[in-house]
Prior knowledge:
Blueprint: H1 2-8, H2 22-31, H3 35-40, E1 46-47, H4 51-107, E2 110-114, H5 127-141, E3 149-153, E4 158-165, H6 171-174, H7 182-191, E5 205-212
Amino acid sequence: MVLILLACNPTAKETDDPTMSEEQVQKKEKKELTRDQILASEEFYFVPVTEEEKEIFWELGGLLVDESTKRIGGKLMKMLEMQGPSGAFDYCHVNAQLMTDSLSKASRTLLRRTSFKTRNGDNDPDPWETKILAEYEARMAAGGDMDPMLVKDNGGGIRYFSPILIMPVCLNCHGTDAEIAEDTKQKLAIHYPEDQATGYALGDFRGMWSINFAFQQ
Ligand code: HEC
């Protein structure tokens, strides 16, 4: 149980741990480049996938996103119906991360949800994800296409991304102050003191599914 809580709790993330190796510190610093620094940097870029790669990974990416959406969304709707936002919150808080982690392991990919405004800091984007989130944001603003993408990053990962938009049910926990129930707000304050994922409106770009097929190649 303790482990489950730690996995959900952003305050349990490592900070200035004196036992970290130099490599770990460097990795952490890289992760902590600001969004603007990453967007301006030429260090992280993508190249198109080959036809052969597309044949394998496009369909697989779609299947994994469908399955993940079904697993998270289906249960969420059921919990909302049965127990209201507060019960559904407990479900999301404990299970969302476990569910993506287990699908990730089973599919031998790195599968996650990420966003510019995360609730759980463990879902913060890596540099390549940052570039794609910015791309989707720009497309959204321009009314452009929000289809999934399959690309290869210069770190060697074949990546599948699929945008996530805000639907009516999401507003219970990601909407404006007036849309979120009091007991949900209290739970947010306890479990996610650094929550950034509120204030969304219907149809907003919330974030994306991100799959890295690095392990499969
Ligand atoms: C009952 C409350 C609740 C509802 C309804 C809800 N969420 Fe969330 N959402 C959460 C919680 C809690 C987390 C943090 C889970 C964790 O610790 O990984 C979260 C995390 C996320 C994340 C991962 C990125 C992040 O911010 O950490 C995305 C993306 C997301 N929600 C999208 C949605 C969408 C889209 C909907 C509607 C289809 C939705 N949520 C409905 C409570 C909810």
